[in-house]
Structure formats: C-alpha cells, structure tokens
Amino acid sequence: MKKFYQDLLASHNLHKPLAVNKEESFESESLKKEKILQQVPILGEWEQVGRGNFVKDSSLIHLKSPARFETYPADWPQDGDYTSFGMIGAKRTFINENWETFNQLKLVVTSHCKNIINPAITVSFTNDGKIKVPDKYDREGHHVINLENKQTREYRLDISNLSRDAISKLEITFNANGSYMDLPADWDIVVEKIFLETNQENSNVKGWQILKNDLSYSHIGYPKESTKTVIAHSELVGEKFLLIDEKNSEVIYKGQFQKFDKTVGTYAVADFSDYKIKGQYFLQVGDLKTKIFKIDDYENLLKTSLWKSLNFVFCERCGCPVSGIHGTCHQDVFAEFNDRKIIFNGGWHDAGDLSQQLVQSAEVTLGIFELAAKVKKSDPVLHARLLEEGEWGLDFIFKTRLGNGYRVTSAGVSRWTDNQIGSMDDARARVHNSPYDNFLITGILAKIYLALSAEADLREKIASILEIDYEDALTEFEKAPFKHEPISWEHTYSTSKSTYLATMIWTAALLYQITDKFDYQLFVEQKLEDLLDCQENEGISLFDGSLLKGMFYRDEEKKVFQHFNHQAREHLYAYALAEAQKIVTDKSLSVKLLAAISNYGDYLKYLMNFTAPYPMIASGIYEKNEWQDKESFDKQHLLVGPEAKIEFQEQLVAGEQIAANYYIKRFPVWFSFRGNNAIVLSMAESAAILGKILADKSLTEIAYQQMEWLIGKNPFGQSMMFGEGHQFPEMYTVSSGEIVGEMPVGVQTFENEDAPYWPQFNNATYKEVWVGLAGKWFTLVSKLLEEEEYEKVIG
User: Fold this and answer.
1) Residue 645 falls within a domain, yes or no?
2) What is the three-class DSSP state of 347?
3) Which residues are CB-neighbours of 313 under 8 A, at least 6 positions away?
4) For residue 657, which phi and psi values (nearest 5 degrees)?
5) CA–CA separation, 421 vs 426, rounded Å?
6) Most exposed residue of 48, 374, 377, 506, measured as fewest CB within 10 angstroms of its CB?
7) Where are the beta strands (DSSP E) in 311-405?
8) Which is nearest to 266 in space by CA: 221, 207, 205, 206?
9) Transmembrane stretches, by residue range (predicted)?
C-alpha cells in the first residue's frame, strides 16, 4: 500500500502514468516457479512475410522496417478502417510436427526501435491436426508480447492448452502502425534462442477445477459484513485452516474446509464469514497460504483499484499527450457533415486498438462523475482528479454533437496517424442521427447533472441541451420506432426493443426529476407498461417444481430472451425500474413495478447457483429455438457464418437444462467476440440497484462478488486488473503497452464448451483491454458506496 501511494505521488495524482511494476504479474511469477525437464531449440530456415526487411542469419531472426508506409497493403482495406501500414515478420514451416510433449515456448528478444510507441511482436501458431489453429474466427493461436525497448529479455509462453499435434507453421510478426508524433522512426527487432520446453510446473487454463497447490480468494479482500470464503481443491476437505493477523502473526480464527459439491464440481471451501473485524490477514492450510488480504468497508477495500482504473482511463486519452506513451494524437480522424469537417479526437481510445466510440466514452464519463459524487467527502483528492477526467469526457460529448440529432459516433482506427489532414493515413469517422444513441447520451448527461453539486458550473452547460437533445431523439424515434442505424460497428447495434424501452424510461424519468414537467412523467408511465410486457411475469415451470420469472425478453413477443455477449447494458433495466419508481404515481402501476423489481432480483439470485462456489453470476436463461429468429440472431452475433446456428445449439446443451426447452448458460452463447467482464459488471450494477430498493443484502453481496471474481477469486487465481492484486496477466495492449489498471474483455470459453478458458495467449477479444470496463467499475463502486452510506445513516 505504501509503495502504491509513493507511485501515485510520483505521478502527480495521475498527470502522468503510474509506474508499471511486473513483479507480481502472471508472467513474472511463472518464470520464478518453472522447472524445465527438457529444452529443444527450433532450428531451420525462416522466410520473410509481409513488408520491411528480413536480415538473413542462421542463428537469429532480424526484422527491420520503417514505422509507416505511404500505401496500405494491397489486400487490406484501402480506406484504412482498422488497419495498420502493414505486417512485417518471418515464418518457419514444419511438416506437421507433434509438439504435445512440450508445454511452453521460450524466446529471447532484443528491441532497438526508435520512436516506436510500444514495440511488440506477435507469435502465431498454425496447427493442422484434430483441432485447427487458428480457429475460424482467427482468435486462437496468437499471442502479443510487449517488449522492453533497448533491452534484451527472455519471454515465456504457456502452450499447454494449444492444439499442437500437427504444427505446420510458426510466425513472428509485428505491425507498422506509425510513430510518436510522426517523428522519424524505425523498427529493429532481433529474435534468438527460440526453444520448445517441457515445464514440470503446470498452469491452470481451462475449466472450473482449481490446482491442488493453489487457493482461490478475493485479492481485494472482503467486506466485513459479507460472505468470506476461500476455495481449494477437494483434497483439502476436512483440513483445518487458520486466519492469521498479518500485523502480529496471531491466529485469530480457526476453521475446517467443508465439502462443496455443485454443478461445476466438488471443492473444499473455507468459510470465515462470521469474523467481522477490520484488518489485514492471510489464510493458511498446512504449508499453503494466501497472500495478504483485507477485511474492511467498501471504500477501503476498493480505493487503490479506483486510482488504478482511473490511471488506465487517463492513459487511454485520445487527442491529449500522455507522458511516456504518446503525444497529441489523431487530429486527422474527422467526419464530414454539411460541408464541414469535424475532428474526432478526444474522449478515450476504445480498447487495445485506437478506435473511438462516442457511446463508450460517454458511459465512462458517467461512471467517473457518479463515483466523484460518492467520494467527495471521504477523499477530496480523488474527487478532484475524477472531476478533471470527467470534464475531458464531457468535452468530447459536447464536441461530437452536431445538432438536430446528428452526432459523430465512431471511427475504426488501429494506427498512430500523422495528425495532418489530407495525407493518406486520414481516418473517417461515422455520423448518425440515431434516436437510441441520443436517448442514451441524454440520459447519461441528465444523470451527470444530478450527480454534480448544485453550484457546479457544468450543470448549466448540461441543462442547456438536455431537453433539446431529448426532443431530437423523440422526433426521430416517432418516424420509425425502435429502428436503429444498420452499422454493425456501432456499439449499440444489438439493442433490443426492451433495452430501447428501458433507456427511454430512464432518460425521461431523470428529465422529470430535473424539470418537473408532467410530459416526462406521462411518457414514463406509458412506456413502463410496454417494458413490463417484455418481462417474464407468469413464470416458467422448472424441473425442480419452482417458477422462474423476472428476466427480460428482447420484446413483448417473448420468443428470445435478452442476452449480452460482448457489449453489455443489462443495468439499463435496473436503471429504468429504479428511476421510474421515484416518479410513478399510478397505484396499480406502482404495484406491478415493485413486483417486477422483486422478480428481477430473484432471477439474479437464482443465477448464482450455477457457478458456486465461485462468485461469477451466470449469463442467463436461453430457449432452445432462439437461433431460429433470424433478425435477433443476426443483431446479436457479428462476423459469423451459417455454421453459427449449429454451434448455438451445441453451446446451449453444454449449459444446464432447467426445464423442457430451457437452459442456463454460465457463459453466453458467443462466437467471434468472447469475454464476459462487461456482462458480469453490468449485471452487478443491476444487483446493487435492486438490493438497495428491496433492502436485500444478498443482492448487494452479489454485486461485490463480481469484483471478487475479477480480482482473483476464479479458478486461475489471477487478477484481471493489471497491477491490482496478484498474478495479473499481460494483456492485448498492442497500441499503448501495459497500463496499470487495465482490464480485459474477460474470461472466454473454449469452442462450444460452457466452462472458463483463460490461456496465457492474449489475443483479442478476450484479453484485449477495454476502457468501457473502467466506467462500469466506477459506477458499480459508486452504487456500493451509496449503499454503505445509506446503511450508516439508518444504523
């Protein structure tokens, strides 16, 4: 903790990035533990692939290239959408070699790059055996290594779960993607000493079962009034555990690992929930022990994660120099509208690439301001820094507003451009008049308005456009209700009618609270009836004799349940119900509304049964014939072929059948886009909101437990926030390099299975860092702090 605050002070409260410390990363820890049983060098002729220069040498691979070319490769998109200036690399071919006796690849790399932002290489495998690599979505078999420039380093890659019975090709490549401020720049990479190795120490990369020599626990600690458990392999059932005070090494609690046998396996679980004294502790069983964790209140448990997440957001700023990463950027990403050109830099880069999404930046802005309101009294320094970053986001929202409902919405960029409009590397941003996006962004601005203090100057600025933008959205909506722009790259593309309704209700309810105008209240009550028609109210009869209700469908026809499999806005249902409850005056509607809230809460609690003892909430209920609804299927699943409908059915039966034709999926049905962190955080928001309304502590607990899942309490014992907790893996951060506080898209599944899959390989999408997750983290913490403050007030 002391070291963290020293780093924070050195960053001048995040006016330059926090220092990246990799000592506790998964990669560093793995190198310390390894026991090599055999090592075989990869020898033979390497061939050049792509552009640049390949310096032939029998003992090493030497790759050189300029940072940019004046053309895109002939077979790449010539508009530059999501492209670099070209790939440079080398390949080594094999005659279907079997590498199954080896479980890791090791290589030594030297980087001598000049003015390159984050020198990195990609290691790619091709397997022509029983399971093909790469897979049909080109996700499997690629791993990016962020290099230490001007240094020689040894890098290790765990290939234990890679299909490698018939390896036919190994490639080492990088992409020329521009330079720092378009200064003269060169790539110069030397790869040598490439080995296949057999490591006696195994990694856990797939499935629910934990390794025998590991303990799964919450690295961020446990709220003092909540459930506190540590998960271990079933061999420890019956063993005694000790809870030890870190300060004086005193044993302050003793217990016994109990057998836990549920749908995801048999485990030993240590439960010390009845111990509620604040402090720092570790748990020990025999020679096995956790690292130090806290028992405390929410703010003290989560404070460092807030600073680190904010660091990640700051480092993703677009258009603003970030010391040590990039200079002013993307001044030549622009939109054209009514004979005008609008520069589209600002906000924050979307992910591991450099694309930009207005909605994503707007949602992050909301999270920042909501959190700022909750820490204003307890931490004025964090509060001030949040307001500063929030204003950067608001500036972008205002800047991209073109009037009459039009906004600049997104741009696909994966290169550092030269900042000069008119050159070949310019990127075009998209412009839309999307009523859905306008309702959502207006709601975001209204919520920010309410989160600001009454004297804040920003309130007047926001208030000046709220009703105008709402009317623009309503006008366009009434022309073609529930239609959406047919652009699949927009982050709201998969929006269903029920999510649309929830968004409109939320926004109108907020505007009523701000303006006290009756029309907004009337609109909420009218649309609320429609939204509740999209919810399961009667109940589905389950095999266990109970009725399951509360979940939402995509529309009132109730053919397809609402699912999120990448983008996730489950929280909008809770947002709508919570804000509507504040203003609905019709008594019969109020009764229906409270029942809807209660049923929805019960549904979220039900989902927790399918992943216990792990705290990850299951993704939801599916009906077996949903794949036959072409319109919704095509909206939900991008970049898929006709085989996806067959795979849908295979993924479904891998879940848990709960009734005739109905299944619970622990992970979503998904294809090219995989990773569930946004999904669990979005559902956590819903749980936190409903928990407060219903005074149901178990829902609040579910909300916090999703954060436990992300920060260590998972089968792999890894934290998914870089620099927070322990065993955090290096991620797909190819554009900007590793950043303290970054979070990836999330745990995926292997092929059509319904179990967690988390290899060291860090390709997109599952291990691609995603700025939107920080916004969800901020919002979720704000809900938990609000609940904690409320509990203190009522005693």
Assistant:
1) yes
2) coil
3) 348, 364, 368, 389, 741, 771, 774, 775
4) -75, 130
5) 6
6) 377
7) 333-337, 340-343, 356-357, 401-403
8) 207
9) none
Q: Which amino acid is at 306?
A: L
pLDDT, position 788: 80
Both tokens assigned to 532: 């509740």
737 phi/psi in degrees, rounded to 5: 85, 175
CB atoms within 10 A of CB 679: 29
368 neighbors 375 (Cβ within 8 angstroms): no
Q: Contact 440/373 with Cβ under 8 angstroms?
A: no
State the Cα–Cα distance between residues 731 and 753, nearest whole angstrom. Answer: 23
- 69/643 Cα distance (integer angstroms): 38
Residue 740: closest CA among 322, 361, 362: 322
- Token digits of residue 294: 């806290």
Locate all alpha helices (DSSP H) within 637-714, ordered by sequence.
644-653, 677-694, 697-710
CA 465 – CA 762 distance, rounded (Å): 42
pLDDT of residue 795: 53
What is the C-alpha separation between 93 and 43, in angstroms, rounded?
11
186: how many CB neighbours lie within 10 A of its CB? 16
560 and 413 co-located in one domain: yes
Does any domain span residue 427?
yes
230 and 195, same structural domain?
no
Do both 122 and 43 map to the same domain? yes
Q: Is 425 left (phi over 0), alpha (psi -120 to 50) or beta?
A: alpha
Q: How many CB atoms lie within 10 A of CB 4?
A: 18
Q: Under DSSP, is residue 67 helix (H, G, I), strand (E, B) or coil?
A: coil
Q: So what's the pLDDT on residue 792?
A: 66
Token readout for 310 is 């904010």
Alpha-carbon distance 622 to 129, whole Å? 33
C-alpha dist (Å) from residue 48 to 62, 72, 134, 671, 701: 10, 18, 20, 32, 54
**Pair of tokens at residue 487:** 């652009």
C-alpha torsion sign, points 746, 752, 755, 758: negative
User: Using an 8 Å Cβ cutoff, are 462 and 451 in contact?
Assistant: no
Return d(Cα 554, Cα 537) in angstroms, integer: 14
CATH number for position 580: 1.50.10.10
- Number of structural domains (the chain) is 3
What confidence tens digit (pLDDT) does each residue in 7-24 have?
Answer: 999 999 999 999 999 999
* CA 463/CA 361 separation, integer angstroms: 20
What's 57's domain CATH number?
2.60.120.260
Do 671 and 529 belong to one domain? Answer: yes
Q: Give me the torsion for CA of 615, 619, 621, 625, rounded to 10°.
A: -150
Q: Using an 8 Å Cβ cutoff, are 128 and 163 in contact?
A: no
Alpha carbons 250 and 153: distance in angstroms, whole number? 42
Owner of token pair 């939402």? 552
- Chain centroid to CA 371: how far? 18
Q: Which 3 state secondary structure label does DSSP give 189?
A: strand
Instruction: Please give the helix or strand (H or E) that residue 175 lies within, else none.
Output: strand 167-175
Cα 645 from Cα 488, distance rounded (Å):
19
Task: Quote the pLDDT of residue 794.
Answer: 58
CA angle 499, 504, 507 (to 5 degrees): 125
Give the range of the structural domain holding residue 290, as residue numbers without chain letter: 225-296
Q: Which two tokens stand for residue 256?
A: 């016994």
pLDDT of residue 790: 67
Q: Both 568 and 431 in a single domain?
A: yes
The pLDDT score that the predictor gives to residue 793 is 59
Tokens of 283: 């748990």
Same domain? 338 vs 258: no
Pairing of strands 36-41, 186-199: antiparallel
Percentages of the chain per state (helix, strand, coil), in multiples of 5: 35, 25, 40
Instruction: Flag residues of the chain having pLDDT under 70.
Output: 58, 790-795
Q: Which of 10, 120, 157, 18 is nearest to 723 (CA)?
A: 18
Please tell me the total number of residues recorded for the chain in this structure. Answer: 795
CA atoms of 364 and 368, how far apart (whole Å): 6
